[in-house]
Design a protein that fits this description.
By secondary structure, the chain is an alpha/beta fold. It is 24% helix and 32% strand.
Length: 171
Amino acid sequence: MLGFIRKKIRKHKIKKINIMQCKQQNKFKKFVKDKVAYCGDGLCVFGEPELSYPEKITIGKRCKINNLVYLNARSGITICDDVTLSRGVKLISTGYDLDLFFSQGERIHITDKPIYIGNHCWICADAIILPGVEITGEYVVVAAGAVVTKSIKESRVIVAGNPARVIKKVD
């Protein structure tokens, strides 16, 4: 009898946790939808993303944004349909131009270039996408920890490394 009661209590706790997670997910989803310039239907937000310049972010349909995602959209970020941003992904559309820094010293040396992520892309955990990168190919997987510094035009590829490069073409 005691075992039956313990199972019932565990089930109740699991249901309660799931309900709390749904409420929290809806709260973050509403937060993102209210802040960004455009957001398509079917957005899923798991955890709390950090958004800089959210009015310059466009998110397509059925996208997933996981915990600790950082979107710096000073120059704009476009995320197309069916894109997954895994835990800790950073999309940064502003940075420092080293050529300007070395030639001008302490004067302004910031560069701003928009980021574009095409349809059906999966940006894995802790990957970083830097200013001016355009992932125009479909079904691109950016491996965990990759640092993408140049645009990716091929479809159905896996990119990895620092700086990221195509390591595999998938049929």
